[in-house]
Amino acid sequence: MVDIRNKRCRHPDCTKYPSYGQGSTNKAEYCSKHRHQGMVNVVSKRCNHAGCTKQPSHGKDCSNKRELCAQHVKERMTIVRQATCERPGVAI
């Protein structure tokens, strides 16, 4: 059976899901192994700092939303790894 709903990497005989494409189109066409030079990850969220292409890892204290990468982190921001329970120290 062939999966026609989810797109696959455009490289012949590759069965991986695409994540990379031209930044201007935001259309994923190739996996990381078969991406062409100059292609960027158009699937994952990006740092909110202008011109930064890194994935965010930091967010506001008491928030589970990642906004900025480690390079552009602002004061009072913490690393957001996973959702936490309302009870202190309990991870979901």
Please describe what this structure looks like.
The chain is largely without helices or strands and 92 residues long. The chain folds into 2 domains: 43 residues, no CATH class; 48 residues, no CATH class. It is 0% helix and 11% strand. It has no helices and 4 strands. It has a two-stranded antiparallel ribbon with strand order 1-2. The protein is elongated. The mean pLDDT is 83.
Taking strands numbered 1, 2, ... along the chain, how are they ordered across the largest sheet?
A: 1-2
The averaged pLDDT comes out at 83
Percentage of residues in strands: 5-15%
| Amount of helix | under 10%
Number of strands: 4
Helix-and-strand structural type:
little secondary structure
Count, helices: 0
Please write the string of helix (H) and strand (E) elements.
Answer: EEEE
Q: How would you sum up the global shape?
A: elongated
Low-confidence stretches: none
Straight-line distance between termini: 36 Å
Structural domains: how many: 2
Biggest sheet, open or closed, and with what strands and sense?
A: 2 strands, antiparallel
Over the alpha carbons, how many angstroms does the gyration radius reach? 17 Å
Protein name: EsV-1-7
Organism: Ectocarpus siliculosus (Brown alga)
